[in-house]
Write a structure and sequence with these properties.
heterodimer, A: Rossmann fold, 28 helices, B: 84 residues, SH3 type barrels
Chain lengths: 660, 84
């Protein structure tokens, strides 16, 4: 007997596979109430009661073995790797859409793969007046069946025992829906291809490009549903509901041709107002903490280069990012809530028609909205878009949407150039500016998509056909883990680069070719900032950005942020800390910065030019790498970089020329 | 009559499907299936159907390709009335 097994977690989209994966493995993989959340496989491990180890692979959802999109192809390839690739399948079905879920299950059964059926969300049976005869289902399908869900079906121990029983037996299914004989009866046209069994048929239809494939697939689906219908009404009963259908009632408003859009825009507007106004309190606290910590360290540590590196290099860089965590936390909170409650699917429904003129579908909107958090997972999320053309247009438009890394830049510049006023005593001018910058990002993404739509050849029409999930109130535990996970990856992902950059910048800002002694805070430096490597380099590139109103210090911050945008603020913080005697708020420090003739460096025209430069420029190495990965071609990544950064320069130049 | 002509809250059986995408069949939109139209909006060009207890969003363009027969035990005058 083996002491470890590899199992696949398979099922249709949005049936709760990742939730089950998290329960079994103890991991916190992102879950949501929207089809297509899982776009790549992930692995976890757990132990059965007898000590047997299980390697569990969570796969993207798919409706059949005939993939429509990249993520579904990953699942097909994994399933087809049996025997040899893995030991069995845990198939997850949803109590609400069991009939539809049985379509893929019967295909897996016909591949003679050992499979355990887990009917998830069983707790909904009572509220939906559903009855399932699991014994009857086991008999018809010839495989073990287990009901699972929230209370009273949260039976993890029993589930582990069931999996234990299943892995030790690994019995191939006792029934077949398409035995070889029926296969030939149903598809006489296949005789010329020498098909021996169902595995051969799947391989033929997916790996070889045969003329009849579409018709054969349609015929197979219809035939399978006919076979499922023969027993389904005997094992599954759904009585009419007596109480009001909450989802139906909410949909009356949220999908309304007028009110649906009003609610959507209201939610978006609330998001950006809260990102600005509510986040201000924790931001002030973090800022105060930075001051106290800096003064404490300067007071307690000896006055030398090392202390200066800690306080003005590392600390200013790290706090330059930490201060924006509250804003990003609000942004992530809204996105996660939209995904988990099922509202994101309604957004797809509302927007599908309006995305068509731009060569996209409603499905493109979810990656575009996710792009406001980070472009990298958003680009990966396009894997669930079936049409290659729509997918390409969407993924190349995503970098225009305002990602969270732009937020610190926007916040600082808005604080510098927009007055603290409200319109009608309600709408903050700063929050409104931020909202408009998000609108600009989204409008640019749509414009880029429209341009691509004109140039990329259209091969076939694509349609949005989508299962709309019920609304669901996520549990506190459910969303808090996803929320913290997203925040953690922002802080540590950006943090690593920022710490490295802060140290490098501190070195470049305090050392140079000339051995000119400078003195700051009583500490002797090899050179002053102006004569440092950083200063010299800034002076060399100054003419390039001069037409945009940037001085050499801004130039350095802009250039260093080509690795990642959020470095802009930490670079400015490091540059000014290196130069300055006392730690103070970065905004106050920037406000004091003046040219020799007394003009402020960060005036309205320069501020707008910086905002527009960051709105358009593609300053993210990870985004470039993921565009190359997903398109398989550097030309798309380089094209996006040149076009976006070029347009950023032109737009900023025009804005500065007009406003100055 | 076509699915596009059915009124909201009315139920019907699908009688024939003309050149529909595979994805639609996968969702269970098949001849003989009972469907209920939950929502139709010309502005959004989308329909919301209820099928086997699930809600399915479908573009109007595809609803043109689905022939239906409204259920006999409902207000036929309302459900059959063309929306044009």
């Amino acid at each position: 007997m083996k002491n470890s097994y590899k199992l696949l977690l398979v099922g249709n989209s949005n049936v709760g596979k990742s939730t089950l994966f998290n329960i079994l493995t103890g991991l916190h993989r992102q879950t949501s109430n929207y089809p297509g959340t899982t776009v790549a496989e992930s692995t976890g491990y757990f132990k059965l009661p007898d000590g047997t180890g299980i390697q569990l692979i969570d796969l993207p959802g798919t409706e059949t073995l005939y993939p429509h999109s990249m993520d579904e192809e990953v699942t097909r390839q994994e399933i087809m790797s049996y025997p040899g690739g893995y030991d069995g399948i845990i198939y997850v079905a949803d109590v609400d859409s069991l009939k539809k879920n049985l379509l893929l299950l019967t295909q897996i059964i016909d591949l003679k793969i050992p499979v355990l059926l887990i009917i998830n969300k069983a707790d909904k049976m009572a509220s939906k007046a559903i009855e399932i005869d699991t014994d009857g289902l086991e008999k018809y399908l010839g495989i073990p069946v287990f009901l699972f869900g929230k209370k009273p079906y949260d039976r993890k121990e029993e589930l582990l025992k069931k999996i234990q029983e299943f892995v030790h037996l690994r019995k191939p299914p006792a029934t077949a829906f398409f035995p070889s004989l029926r296969l030939m009866e149903t598809f006489p046209e296949l005789k010329k291809y020498h098909i021996r069994d169902y595995r051969d048929l799947v391989k033929l239809l997916t790996e070889k490009n045969i003329r009849e494939s579409k018709e054969i697939i349609k015929k197979e689906i219809i035939r399978r549903y006919q076979l499922i219908n023969r027993f389904f009404s005997r094992i599954y009963k759904r009585r009419p509901l007596k109480r009001k259908d909450i989802t139906g009632l909410l949909d009356r408003v949220l999908l309304h041709p007028f009110w649906g859009y009003v609610v959507f825009f209201l939610i978006m507007f609330l998001l950006f107002q809260s990102v600005y106004q509510l986040a201000e309190y924790p931001m002030n606290y973090i800022d105060g903490l930075y001051h106290k910590l800096s003064l404490f360290l300067l007071d307690k540590l000896p006055a030398n280069m090392f202390t200066d590196l800690i306080v003005n290099g590392l600390l200013s860089g790290i706090f330059g990012v930490l201060i924006f965590v509250p804003q990003i936390a609000f942004l992530f909170l809204f996105i996660i809530l939209m995904e988990k409650t099922g509202y994101m699917s309604r957004v797809v429904y509302l927007t599908d028609r309006w995305m068509k003129p731009f060569g996209m579908s409603g499905k493109s909107l979810v990656p575009l909205i996710s792009g406001t958090a980070c472009a990298v997972p958003a680009i990966l999320a396009t894997r669930s878009i079936e049409s290659r053309r729509e997918r390409l247009i969407t993924l190349l438009s995503i970098p225009f949407t305002t990602c969270s890394a732009r937020l610190p830049v926007y916040t600082i510049i808005i604080a510098l150039i927009i007055p603290e006023k409200t319109i009608w005593g309600l709408i903050g001018l700063k929050g409104l500016t931020l909202f408009l910058l998000y609108v600009l990002g989204f409008a640019s993404a749509l414009f880029a998509a429209w341009l691509l739509h004109q140039f990329i050849e259209k091969r076939s029409a694509s349609h949005l056909i989508m299962l709309m999930p019920d609304y669901h109130l996520p549990s506190f535990r459910e969303w808090i883990f996803d929320w913290l996970d997203k925040l953690r990856s922002f802080v540590f992902g950006a943090g690593k680069i920022i710490v490295a950059f802060s140290v490098i910048l501190w070195f470049l800002g305090t050392h140079g070719w000339q051995n000119n002694q400078g003195e700051m805070k009583g500490v002797a430096y090899p050179v002053s900032l102006e004569k440092s490597y950083l200063g010299q380099f800034g002076r060399i590139i100054e003419p390039v950005f001069k037409p945009l109103g940037f001085d050499w210090k801004i130039d350095i911050a802009v250039l260093s942020s080509f690795a990642a945008r959020e470095i802009f603020i930490s670079t400015l913080a490091t540059i000014y800390s290196v130069e300055d005697d006392q730690p103070e708020k970065i905004v106050d420090r920037l406000r004091k910065e003046k040219y020799a003739d007394g003009r402020p460096v960060f005036d309205f025209a320069t501020g707008i030019a910086i905002l527009l430069f960051y709105a358009f420029a593609l300053q993210c190495m990870s985004t470039l790498a993921v565009i190359k990965q997903e398109t398989g071609d550097w030309k798309y990544a380089l094209g996006a970089f040149v076009l976006m950064t070029g347009s950023a320069y032109v737009v900023s130049f025009i804005a500065y020329a007009l406003l100055n | 009559m076509k699915l596009i002509e059915l009124r909201p809250d009315c139920e019907a059986y699908i009688t024939s499907l003309r050149d529909v995408p595979v994805k639609m069949l996968e969702m269970g939109v098949l001849e003989g299936s009972k469907i209920k139209l939950l929502k139709a909006s010309p502005l959004q060009q989308m329909l919301l159907l209820q099928l086997h207890g699930n809600r399915i969003a479908l573009p109007q363009e595809l609803a043109e390709k689905i022939e239906i027969e409204p259920l006999p035990d409902q207000d036929n005058l309302y459900c059959r009335k063309l929306k044009k």
